[in-house]
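hey team, just a heads up i'm posting the complex here instead of the shared drive bc the drive is being weird again. everything in one block, sequence lines first with there labels, then the predicted structure for the whole assembly after. its three chains so it's a bit long, scroll down
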Amino acid sequence: MLYIIVDLLSASSLMQIADTGASVSSRVFASQRKDVRWTSAAIGAAFLFNPFTIATCIARPTSVFTNCAILTAVAKAATSDIVPAMLALALSSYLSLYPILLIPPLILLCHDQQTATKPKTIVQVTTTALTTLVSALTALIGVSYVLTGGSWEFLSSTYGVQLLLPDLTPNVGLWWYFFIEMFDSFREFFLGVFWLHLAAYVGGLSIRLRNQPLFVITCLLGIFAIFKPYPSISDTSLFLALLPLYRHVFPLMRYTFFTTSVILYATLLGPAFYYLWIYAGSGNANFFYAITLVWSLGLSVVVADLLFAVLRDEWEVERPDMKGKEVRQI
Amino acid sequence: MTILALSFLLSSLVVFFASFASASADYHERLLLRPLPPSSLLASFNFRSNASSSSFEQQNFRYFPRSLGQILQHANTRELHLRFSLGRWDAESWGERPWGGTREGGTGVELWAWVEAVSDEEADARWLTLTNALSGLFCASLNFIDSTRTIRPVMSFQPSGHHSNSTIPNLHLLHGALPREPVCTENLTPFLKLLPCKGKAGISSLLDGHKLFDASWQSMSIDVRPVCPEDGSECILEIDQTVDMVLDIERSKRHRDNPIPRPRPAEELICDPTKPYASDEICYPLDSAFDQPWSLSEVFGRPMKGSCPLTESDGEDSEAVCINISDQRGIYSSPGAVEHKYPGGFFRCYKILDDAEFDFVIPKGQSENIPSTPLDHPLLYAERSFTGHGQERGGVQTLLTNPSHDSPVEFVYLESLPWFMKTYLHTLRAKLNNADKNSPSDKESLIKEIYYRPALDRHRGTQLEIRMLVPAASTVTLSYDFEKAVLRYTEYPPDANRGFDVAPAIIKITTPAGKPPLYIRTTSLLLPLPTPDFSMPYNVIILTSTVMALAFGSIFNLLVRRFVAADEVGTSWHLKASKRIAGKIRGLTRRVRRKGKVETEAKVK
Amino acid sequence: MALIFPAVSTLHRDPRLLGYSPYVSTLCIVIGVVWLLLLPLNEYSRQTYISENALLPGQVHTYFGGSEQHVFKAYKREVEVLNTNGTDLVAAKLDEIFKSAGLKVARQKYEYTSSGKRHSGENVYSILHAPRGDATEAVVLVAAWRNMSGELNESGVALVLTLARYFKSTKGQFLCNSRANHCLGWSLWSKDIIFLITADSKAGPQAWVDAYHDAHSPTSVSSLPLKGGVLQGVVVVDYPFSHHFESIHIVYDGINGQLPNLDLFNTAVSIASGQMGIGTVLQQMWKHDDGYRDRLRTMLRGMVNQGLGHASGPHSSFIPYHVDAITLQAVGEGSHDEMALGRTVESLLRSLNNLLEHFHQSFFFYLLVQANRFVSIGTYLPSAMLIVVNFTITAMSLWVQSGRPEAANANLRGHSGQTTKSVKADRVADVTPAQSAAVAERKLFLPLVFVIGAHFLGVVPLYIFNRSSEKVFSPRPISWPRATNMVYQMITIVFFSFTAFNFILPYVSAVILECYFHPTRQEILLIKSFSLLLLGMFLSALATLNFSLAFLIGLSSVPLTFVHPIPRHPKIAAVAGIFMSLLAPTMVLICSSIYWEIPVGNILIEAAFGWDVWGMWTQVVVWCVWWPAWLTGTVLLASSLVKSSNKQRS
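-- predicted structure starts here --
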């Protein structure tokens, strides 16, 4: 019940985002296809009736709270009220660390979506945002410090788990098997590499797509759903929730069918192989591992393809004559 | 009759301990034999030697083994209990455990000690030195008792020695178990070395590795504790070594004459003639009614080499060998040994000459009317097993049965679980089997108190202590669920697919005040965990990195490149290639067609 | 990747592929079938070998025999007497016999109700504790009171009783077989041995193994009072006659087509043939001249058994719990007596006793072509995968087709005559890429709804066939004979009515589809594409779980690849429609029942029983994967009929 409510909340904030239309047009950028889009109701429904979302809701993980917080943050940012957005972001990162990486695009989003006649400069926005965020986080952690009876141990046993991956329970991600098989001496090094890899996307995307921060967020969420330490289908469902906002670039995507079928295959084969490994005992771990590889590959293709479509869309803004022509990248 | 005998049996044993407790002499040993149904024999050896605490302080050891003593001093260990056990005590047919279970451990090796230290850290450090030293001394891998296998029980153990009030606050109880450890002769030899008579003389000369480890159940124990007499005289440090073993008489008699258990020759079969089809070809077997003869040397493979000269020369303590068997049973003992029957009809002891070999023979039970030795039944039966299947999660279920018809049993149930067995405490359930459904929730009424210390990954195991009671004549099912963790591939043992052993649960039955508590241990469990493919490290690293590289590459590729229209630049390699190939094919087909045409024209002409 | 993707995309857009896709998929199918047919050859099948070194099959002396034979005869008499005296005494007597052998005994009552019939009985089992063992591992020796065909398993039960007594009396031995570092001990058994005698072969073992893992429903199955450790292996003895036997028939199929570890099978074979000199047969191939024909037949029988996924013996119920099990069935009239079988079992148990780890070394996916030749998964999986891939290929090509505007499509309806033309068209397209690059927007809603709806519709027949009879009889489950034929008649009637309904269903739904939704050509293409895609995915997932089932279904739904809506030629469409309705799951079921001369009713009752007791999901696959795909295909055909008729009317 609680989880249904949380999902509804996320859906409502999703609809807010859709209403702002930040995905197609903002103060600094407007797509040519801004008329092609789904209604916010449709988008909300697409999120709610997504099988992944339903499955998540049934499984009742805590990650839905994180997702809800993230969506709220984005929604608030899309309406450019900085403080609540940052509070929500603080909450989500307090719950599960990785959303902290969403700060830059969120700040940009807040900045771009301002409707006031005399908009704040990026510096002002950043300062307010960061101060709110830091104070909120310190407050939260302070509270939990008090609640745990004045010991800092909870930090290592909560965020430590996120950072150091002591728990190797199989999931759809790439980390678990990698670190099961990793040699002890290299474990720390590769942990560093993986986190760096995860963080690397933030900078690149925010700079290149400076004009479409919302899309940067979408893209990052997709990447998190693939490369974060303990990914699950709830993260995927979050990404797929934001996907319909880009209805207008779907025609520009090249491998929709291919990727959909890959992901569907993975969704069917994953449980089958997990069953073979864990219950039937007739298959070994490699079966399931292979499927997680396919799954990650499929998702990353989706992300890359979406990215391509958006870039192309952006490019057509500056060169309207190129619409519907063969393009190549050099 | 049996009741009387039974009570006497107990009382005699008590007397026999009491006589030790108020010990004046410094070394005693005694072998107690008790036949068990259907055809087994319980032999419990007991060796006990003392050292006055002053002489112990001055490292002046007489009977007390120096090697052990120095270890204890070095590790500031005030009280030590070490157990090597093998097999399973069959309570249904063998009844109460010897020594009330206080002198036995779970399968494998079990060690608990009271270490004197000011802080937990210091206690841990000393515990570490203790385990390492002991593992060297007893050739057992006790050094594997690390922090993940060490617990600090709260309710289950009490110090059995007398400790001065000054030390008690600084005493730390630490407990570790190695269920996987196979107990073997390499553990017996150092054990015998600790004895003053070193297995050369006295009852210890009966201890033979092959026999001992062929036993259906055996347990070796070492207890070191300080004892302060009531009269306020000087405290003594007392080391108490016992070896309990249950021998299958038939089996241990066998492999001298005929080691290979071929089926009995037909004439030895006892058949049921009443069957309609009975003939010498067809035989419905009957189990032999009365027990078979045996002798000391048959059962132990060798006679006893006199008595250990260091024991008392007279009095009860000098009687080295005792048997729980009906007085009406005639026993032929070797000359020189003095038989002493105790009142009650089921307990007799032998005083043995120092130098002569000693042996006795118990002939075939002559008639049915000789009463067999009474067994007193245990207060509680415990059986623990896994539930569920699959390698993701499972459950543990313990059946605790109270056979008595009138009195409930209260006890403390201690589980020490490895960290990769992640228990869900909220699933802990205690269910009264023969209770009606709408009875009030059993958990409250049955479980009195829970002490739970959750596990930390790779640092410490789960410790679960439950004080609960089982009402009279009923069975309680205690169950909880757990999740199985996946380990790093370096953390698996060589035979990973066998599974991991889970230490037996320890049950301490609280008896009415004044009596020592009784202990029961369940069997150990085999926990299968999901295993990765151990041959994969390189492949996994390569494949995963490839996927990441692909994603990274493609995304940044898109980010850094810029768009141009296709017709603004030259066509790329693959279009060229495909065009060229297509052109060739077309050319080929054209040529073929033309050739065909030419031929046809030729034909026409 | 950045280089590959454009390449892929251009290929996507290349209409030649579309033209070729039918041929490609045909090729896939042909190769797949041929591949399967090649498997029995020496080049593709391998000699079996033991990969778990600890097993040491046939390396031990077995002493079962001598006076034990007298005991055996006596027990057999007892069993016969019990059989005549009626079943209620059986459990008590067996209990007594085990007790007299000095073993711990326990019983278990169970009662299942499936399709109105009551299956009840009482299992008796006893545990021989390994001396010095610690209740961590156990091996099970099973004999069912009545075997799969309902005969009294007299010698089997007697043999297990005798062995129990024999093992108990000889549990110590001069050999040392327990775990390496226990080797100083003199004891032989390092694992507990559980002797289990089940009342029947179908429900009894299931009830027992469920209860052993506490996966049972307390209402129908009582839980076990005695338990051992982890089950490491199971051997079932089936010897339902008293004369000497000729060879041992090894049954190894588990429920849902899961197989025991190949090592267990190999051990049994090598002990029986190598040590005891008893011939071994499998899959009821009583005569097997190691030729291609017989090998193929063996393999196909194996595949059918696996595909049906029903229990083929008491051992089948153990396999889903990751407990490897086989049945040794004495068959034929020959020279070997019960003692030989007893020694085989003893030797087999000794090998299991040697195991240090749970079975994990050898293969779990294999097809046996002969007692000591097998085909491993790597070799046979491609055949099924190729057949599955053909669906996916077609689905993809249809997708791309549906993406192109009608004009571009006009010339490639996948007919050979027009490919050259299409090539020309494409050359044009090459020069001005704009036209081919422009992808028409696809209307996904109707197709998605239709396909998903069809798949959910599959639940209806599933429910009907598994539950219907219960709905009728649930108030009062009645005694055997009457219930049997009542259920039988009822279910048969239901089935045939459904078949008839199934025959007209596509046409009805087609009319509805045409008249109310007026699907465009694109939508029809998409419908087909989606349903084929789903079929392909389900089958590929299934192929990893139950290869044979996936292969059979894939083969029988191959025509779906080629049925196009052809409104132009109603006659061809009609013929194809009839052909399709002959390929309906129901019709296939009827044909197979005629072929194997089993009445349809029994098959369905068996299936319902499997669903209720064994947790068998063959029918789920049939009704929720195969049937919807078939339905969609046929509906498309029918829709073309309807279209043409509409045309004529207008």
